[in-house]
Structures are given as C-alpha cells and as structure tokens.
Amino acid sequence: MSYKRLLKPGSLLFIPMLIALAAIASACGGDDATPMPEPTAMMEAATDTPQPTPTPRPIEPESEAAIATAAPQLTPTPGVDELPGKQGGVLTMMIPYGPFGAGFDGYLSGWNPAYMNSPMYNELVHYNPETADPLDIRGDIADTWELSEDGLSYTFYLKDAWWHDDTPITAADIKYSLDDMTNPDEPRPWVGLIGPYYDNSEVINDKTVKVNMQYQAAAFFPYLGLDFMQMRPKHYLEGGADLATIENQLGSGPFKLKNYEPDVDIEYERNSNYWKPGLPYLDGIRYILLGSAGTVTAAHKTGQILMSATMVTHMTKEEALQLGSQAESEGIGTVLWAGPASHVNLHPNPNVEPFTDSRVRRAMSLAIHRQPLVEILTRGKGTLGYPFAPNYWFSLTEDEVAQVPGFRELNGEKHPDDIAEAQRLMEAAGYADGFQTEIMAGGGLDSLEAGQVVADQLRRFLNIDITLDVQEGATLDTRRRTGDFKMLSQSSGLLVIDPEDMFGRVYRVSGPGNYTKWEDSRIEDLFQQQTRISDRDERRVLALQAADILLEEAYTIGMYFVIRPMFLSSIVQNFNISPTAYTQNYKWEHIWCDPTCSDS
After folding, report:
1. How far is residue 584's CA from residue 496's CA, in Å, rounded to a whole number?
2. What DSSP designation does 193 have?
3. How far does CA 525 lie from the centroid of its chain?
4. Under a CB-based contact definition with an 8 Å cutoff, are residues 578 and 584 in contact?
C-alpha cells in the first residue's frame, strides 16, 4: 500500500512521518533544495542546535535543517497564461572552463559538463529555480510520486515529455538512466552519489517507474535533484551514440545546440517544441569561455557579458567586491554571494614520506593559522575549515570551532600552545629541523593562494621548506586522480549542506574529493550509521565523532570554507542564486531579459 503525495510547494516531510501517514492513507507534499544550505534531512529545528549563517537569501532555521530525510515534491509547471516572463533575446554568460578529459559526458565527470549540457537536458526532479527557497525540490520530468509504506520505494508518474528527436520520454528512459548512473563497472564520480542508496528500477508502464532503495536514505532526493543528474534517451544511447562530444547530445531540455567553437563559446537556441508550455523565455544562450579575472570583469563592466553562468568566475574576492560596488553605483547590475560553496583543504599524501606518519600530518594541521586565511583570501566572507561546515545543525558554531586546538588564536596570533604541540610532534617523528616538500595547486578557486599562505606559515612554524608546484587543466586533473603529488591544495565544492555530502565526497575512500584514497574503517562505520538515521541530533553526534577522528589523523586538513560570487546584470530577471554551485539550476528556462538581451 502507498499513499499519493499531493503537490504542495514549500513543505517537506520526515520519511518516518511519511511512512506513518502512508499507513493511515494520509497525504502531504514538499520540495527541493541544494546547497548546504542544500537539502539533506527533513528534521525539525532543535532549539539548542546551531543555526546556519545567513546567506544572500536569508533562510529560516527550520527550513535549513530540513533536508535530510524528506522526499520533496513537485510544484506543477505553470500554464502558459500564468507565465510572467518576457519572451525573446539571446543572453550572454561567461563560463570558466571548457570540457575536461571526459568531454561533455556528465556521467564520466560532473559539474563541468553539467553546466554546459544542462540547457539541453532535464532531471527527474530538480531544485526549483523560481523561488529563493533553497530547499524547494519540484518535479521536472516527474509529475507526482508516491512513497511505499516501508519507505523503500518511490513510484514516479511522468509528465508528457519528449526528446529533441520527438521521441516520447518513457519510464524505460528513466530506468536506463538511473541504472547507468550507478553502473559499478564504469567511473561515475558524481552521478554515482546515489549509488549507495539505489537498488534498482522497475518499469510499470510507459509513464510509471518504481525506484527501489537499499535503505531509507535521507540524502537521496537532495542528490537526485542536482543539475548533473540528467536523464538520457535509451533508444539513442543503445544505438551507440557517444555523449563525450557535444555534437552528439540528444536531450529533452529547453535549448538545443546551435554552434560550438572549442575554447571560444557554445551557442544554444530555443527548443520551439519544448514540452513545458511557454518555456523557455529566451530565444537563445551564448556561453563565452573567459579564463582570467581581467577579461571577466571587463566583459561584465562593458555589458558584453550579462551574467556569470556559475559561481566560478576567476575573480578574487577583492575584484568581485569592486565590480559589485561599481556595477551597483552605475545601476548596471550587482554581484551576488552565496555559500558555503566549497571548502579549501590541504591534502598531505599519506602514501608519500614523511606524510605516512600521522604525527607530521597532525603537526601541520595544528600549526596552520586559519583566521588569516579567512581574512586575506575571502575578505572575511569565509568560515574556519572544521571538517564539517560550521554554524549548521550537524557541526559546531564558528565560536566553538575557534576554541578547538589548531583553530585557536591568542591576541590575534596563532595560539602558542598549538605551535608548541606541533613542534613536539615533529620532533617525535624525527623532523625537528623540518624537511623539503611540495604543494601542488591549480591556478584558480583559492587553491594557489591558500597554498602560498600555508607554505609560508609552515615554513615559519615548523621549518618545512615548501615549493609550489603549479599545474593547470588536464595535467592537474590527471595528477589529482592518480595521486601523483606530495601535498595538494584543493577546493572541493559542497553539493548539499549535509554531513552526508562531506562524508561521501571527501572522507570516504570512494569519494571523488578523496584524492589520496586514504581509508579509515571508523569513518566508514560512522558514515554507514548516520546515512540511515533520520534524527538530526543523532546524526550530529556521529558527525562530531568523525570530526574528532579527522582532526587527529589529518588525512585531509581543512583550511576554510568560502562563499562565491556571481555577476548579474540588471537586465536579467527571475534569477535566484543557490547557496552552492551545484544546487543551481542551469537549464535557464525560467529567466528572461527586461528590457532586452541581445538579438543575436
């Protein structure tokens, strides 16, 4: 027996509550999100639990906490006569990178092809781009859904939708996509995030698919709604199409590919036969690849680029602040900020001497002075790099973190007790006089700047002589994946603000952000416990236990969490920034220009 979940925007339910309601044939509805402030667990706010730090869109504490266990619900697509937007125009946006090694195949990679492919594709459910509520998940291809009485199966009822070749989207496409996302024989670094929860799918009929879970998973819907969880056409891929090339894309989304010039731009045109009535508003989108902060700021100031397509803009915090101030004074736009968009970590490779010794790793973690990192590199817009993002229900407040060894200050200076303990550990490990090593870093997203500051601190406090090994593009990607480095300074984006995300992406051996592939059975055990629990307080206890282990072993050393900027022209309407880059909806079907975008 199951109960039909009615559509009711803005509400979410605990999975246990849903199961109870199913037993008495009651119904209710809820929805999306994505950051962290992204969806994670549906739980009532505890009065003694720290609440999130305000973001550009203030979030009510109850909503912020609500992500972990609920299955969000769909808000119906508005009818044509309800659409408020203005039709027409081509919107120019900047993108920071072209395709990486996996090309445009989002299943083989992640966010990078996601923002390039998203205008052409749809998800089963997605974060609602038309509200400022970061927890609002609605149906995309899915119309409605039911949760089984035991909480282990979702039955999705699909809308009338079709691929760009006019073939109808069916339940077989959904099953094919979900099975492919979780294929254990293929690399699935990002879409594979649902793999731990997903068991199988059953095609009931062309418009109905039943998705069976391995267990009641708090994070399934928050992850499923992310923009790279794109559904794909079974008939096309079984014919041998290679989605690594952009020319071979066959989606169902609001836009189609018009032109692609490598390293220059990607142009999309309106899908005139889109199955969502009246959408998209724009006639087209042009993504322009800009690889430096100077060209980005100049293009925004002159109106050549009306919008940053992502929170990755190559601009420093100072440059973004200056651009925002000038744009607002001239009335041409603004710079929006959201986060924590990512955490910047130092990864000492425990497979390489001297980092095989936990005392050396722990000494470095104790010696790093994080407050200057936050002030210098984020202009005070970041938070201390505790293993789990501070100020959320599953972590400590930032004031509490600031009392933890390694994060402490005394009169604005690095706490002398932490330096003394770090030096004692180095001596015990046989490195009282320090050693020589390298930090590999890329050219953007804070990693190089953070590496430079940390190198200076470790040289002063621990006599560690560090050289910066700066790599770019494909070389950086390859060496990260193969663990070919001594230390790595790396920014890792947050997908949803939930301990599940940081556990699964950085602290588990299978995580795509676990670049050294270290493994600790205690961390895995704590992950397996918290992922199956609905109660927020219980999950918090487990997350804090994991944090203690991570600080002691220092397999990865958290430096700080950041927020990131996006430029938005005053012409662009109906855009809502998400707390993370990954819960952002990149289909752009919902935005329009007023008075007008370019016509070409």
Report:
1. 11
2. G
3. 24
4. yes
- The DSSP letter of residue 119 is G
Question: What is the model's pTM?
Answer: 0.74
Percentage of residues of the chain with pLDDT beyond 90: 60
Helix H or strand E segment including 360:
helix 358-367
Tokens found for residue 294: 């100077």
What are the backbone angles phi and psi of residue 481, rounded to the nearest 5°?
Answer: -65, -35
Evaluate if residue 344 carries a pLDDT over 90.
yes
Q: Report phi then psi at 123, rounded to 5.
A: -110, 170
Q: What is the largest CA-CA distance in the chain?
A: 74
Token pair, residue 8, equals: 């009711």
For residue 547, CA distances in Å to 51, 461, 519, 544 come to 18, 24, 15, 5
Which residue(s) pair with 569 in the sheet? Answer: 333
Q: What's 311-331 look like in SS3?
A: CCCCCCHHHHHHHHHHHHHHC
CA–CA distance, 18 with 2 (Å, rounded to integer): 10
Rounded distance between C-alpha atoms, residue 502 and residue 54, angstroms: 20
* Mean model confidence pLDDT for the chain: 84
Q: Which residues, other chains included, contact 362 with Cβ-Cβ below 8 Å and sequence gap of 6+? A: 422, 425, 552, 553, 554
Higher pLDDT, 112 or 20: 112
At which residue do the structure tokens 């984020």 appear? Answer: 378
DSSP 20-40: HHHHTT---------TTTS--
Query: Taken in order 523, 40, 531, 587, is the CA torsion positive or negative?
Result: negative
Q: Collapsing DSSP states into helix, strand and coil, what is residue 449?
A: helix
Rounded distance between C-alpha atoms, residue 50 and residue 44, angstroms: 13
Mapped onto helix, strand or coil, the DSSP state of residue 108 is: coil
Residue given tokens 């199951």 in the structure block: 2
Contacts 24+ apart (CB under 8 A), 541-545: 542/499, 543/388, 543/394, 543/395, 543/499, 543/503, 544/388, 544/395, 544/396
What's the token pair of residue 572? Answer: 């662009």
State residue 189's pLDDT score.
81
> With contact defined as beta carbons under 8 Å apart, do 2 and 148 qualify?
yes
Structure tokens at 464: 């560690």
Contacts of 424 (CB under 8 A, 6+ apart): none
Give the whole-angstrom CA distance, residue 554 versus residue 179: 36
Place of tokens 């104790």: 366
Distances (CA, A) of 592 to 178, 205, 306, 522: 32, 37, 12, 50
Question: Quick one: tokens of 295?
Answer: 């060209």
Q: Are 385 and 343 in contact (CB under 8 A)?
A: yes
* Residue 101 pLDDT: 65
Rg (CA), the chain: 24
* DSSP designation for 464: -
What's phi and psi for 82, nearest 5 deg? -95, -10
Kindly tell me the sign of the dihedral angle through the C-alpha atoms of 472, 588, 165, 201: positive
Strand partners, 92: 286
* Other beta carbons within 10 Å of 23: 11
